[in-house]
Amino acid sequence: MAVEMVKISHISKAFDDFVVLDDVSLSVDHGENLVVFGKSGTGKSVLLKCMVKLLVPDEGEVFIEGKNVHTLSNKELKELRKNIGFLFQSAALYDSMSVRENLAFPLIRNFYFTKKEVEAKVKRALEMVSLEHAVDKMPSELSGGMRKRIGLARSIITEPKLMLYDEPTTGLDPITTKEISRLIRDLQNQLEMTSISITHDLACAQIISDRAVVLDKGKIKYEGSLKELTASTDPFLHDFFTSDTKED
To answer: What are the start-end ranges of the E strands in the chain?
Structure first.
């Protein structure tokens, strides 16, 4: 029997009169890779932020491993977030820090590892993304694909149980997109992580997804395997998957 990692129950969120999420409910099982599609402004990024309490929904609840995220104390929320990795569109590297320092930062800030343990974890994370040689480089010296790999390494260095990806392949060429997507899938298998990925990139989704949902006007309108959604004769889905969808 599948065990839920994430349960989102009747989440709604509006900014002034603009409703971004409208009674959204979904669940994600342990080890599952869910992809969330949707046009610009349909609430994809807002949904991720509500999940980790970067935003507070107007209504509804979010449970991660059975814990109600929005009733946790600050201390409890900090502990929960230690088990969650987040890869932003830009990779969100600190430009003033070397690759080594960027990767060490979440370990030093949130945990109590020795210097030797931190070095070992940095080395292992870079090996997993095949960038050991870049350990002393600055972000400005890295290509877009390398920055994305380093961002991914920093996200998984704490070996999170849950990974949240916000447009993980934005701005990358088709070959690098496939490389990063395969790397995401391989790392999730190695670390036995659960993931939720926002993307408009069908090539990426085809590699990483177990299941997909499509948000439209703040609601989940469609859910199923990617193969089912892309093969659907539904006019909205046909137009969505045969046109260039825009990013948030």
So the answer is: 4-15, 18-29, 33-38, 59-64, 67-68, 84-87, 162-166, 194-198, 211-216, 219-224
